[in-house]
Amino acid sequence: MNKSTLIIALGCICTGQIHAAGLDRSGQSISAFLQPGNYFEAGISVLDASLSGKMNDNFSKGGLSAAANMQTGDIANSYYSPSATLKFQLTDQFSIGFLYDHPFGADAGYPIKAYQAYTEGNERSESEVVSQNLSTIIGFQPNQHWNIYAGPALQTVKGKSRLRGAGYSWSRYDLDAKETTGVGWLAGAAYAIPDIALKASVTYRSEIDHDMNMTESLNILHPVAGRVDLGTSTEKSTITTPQSVNLDFQTGIMKDTVAFANVRWVDWSNFRISPKKLYEFTKLTTGSGVDLAAYYDDQISANLGLGRKFNDKISGTVSVGWDSGAGDLVSTLGPSKGYWNVGLGAQFSPAANYFISGGVKYFWLGDAKAQSGFDFGTDKYDAVYEDNYAWGYGLKIGYRF
Fold this sequence. Notes:
Protein name: Transporter
Shape: elongated
Order of helices and strands: HEEEEEEEEEEEEEEEEHEEEEEEEEE
Distance between the termini: 23 Å
Strand order of the largest sheet: 1-5-6-8-9-10-11-14-15-18-19-21-22-25
Keywords: Cell outer membrane, Membrane, Signal, Transmembrane, Transmembrane beta strand
Radius of gyration: 23 Å
CATH topology: Porin
CATH class: Mainly Beta
CATH architecture: Beta Barrel
Helix content: under 10%
InterPro entries: OMPP1/FadL/TodX
Organism: Acinetobacter pragensis
Largest sheet: 14 strands, antiparallel, barrel
Membrane topology: Multi-pass membrane protein
């Protein structure tokens, strides 16, 4: 097996994760760091989802009931996720790399028509979470087969949310969480047999704590007094982005053809966004504090595929993927339970030291029952989302120097 075949799978465009499983977006791959020699890579992936449902016929909040079959409208906003890697092979035994991506995020907005009967004026529920991650990886290669690596990860997170309408009809809540920085770490090992294009790796990433200044505004609909403004305050709350494990494998199966697979686990069941004012008020009034976002289960995702080198300049891939989602009941801010996908990719290498690749994926989003944070831990749900889908697109360039 020619060594150049190795780049087929690793050069395959990855068109991104989706918010169906927690807030996972990039997949946090370190495959670019495992490329031979000095290497630079930059890419962007875009996800365009159609995500809509209908209100539960038995839905009732704040004395209001949903009309049968009332549609939510499309709540998913399109998003893009950039990434870049710069890797230096310092000596035969030591390498260093810098990996940048947007690992976690959310961007959802409910159209006004979805809940205009439940709110005042032209207001809409919407939430956005944005993260950035810069990992520094130092690798030790005792021989041509092994690569043992570790390093720190610097991560920023910020977010905002406005809760209105059907799921929150008794309240109006605004949150602005200023960007903060947290530090974590990663470690892993890779094993390779270059002559048969075999490469396997396992990478662990730690959880990262973020102590965030959260500005919250809350007013409630009182049955006698009407709207009661509970004021605006800024207090510190902690968000912990989850730990994860990535397993990656590829091997040559015939001349100029490789099979590849990756499996990812993310610890979403221990994740919470719990702004202090919202949590303490709901605990005082209902006996149980409400999280803005939480998940029942961990996420497991898997992708399998084949890569084929057609000639010295053209190669292609085909893949199929699956994601478990993060529980049977999901957040109204990202209402789908996992997915299946199929993908096609192509790579053009004008010269031996650089390439351009692109790809497309189609996602069948899992049907889901969505509940607001006020119902977390119960079997109540506000809406049912079925027959939804998404398209993912990606573009990447790689350069060896």
